[in-house]
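ok so for the tutorial part 2 we go from a plain amino acid sequence to predicted structure tokens. step 1 is just haveing the sequence, like this:
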Amino acid sequence: MEKILSKFGLDNLKLVIVPLSSHVELSSNLSPRIDKEKKYISRVPYENAVGNLMYVMVSTRPNISHEVGVVIRFMENP
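step 2 — the prediction. this is what the tokens look like for a chain of 78 residues:
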């Protein structure tokens, strides 16, 4: 997990026990709205990051399956 976080520049994040609470819902309302945000998010390798999470989930961390399932819903239009 640490290698993946470092690969995507997320190695300085605060770690939590439960990455995504069950009451949190992601929606298109959270998508970037202004051009600066859209330009930034277009450089994020979303599919690659989700694929890395899926590999970790299947091989060593089944406890993140809920979180991976939530982010997979946004694969078509991250």
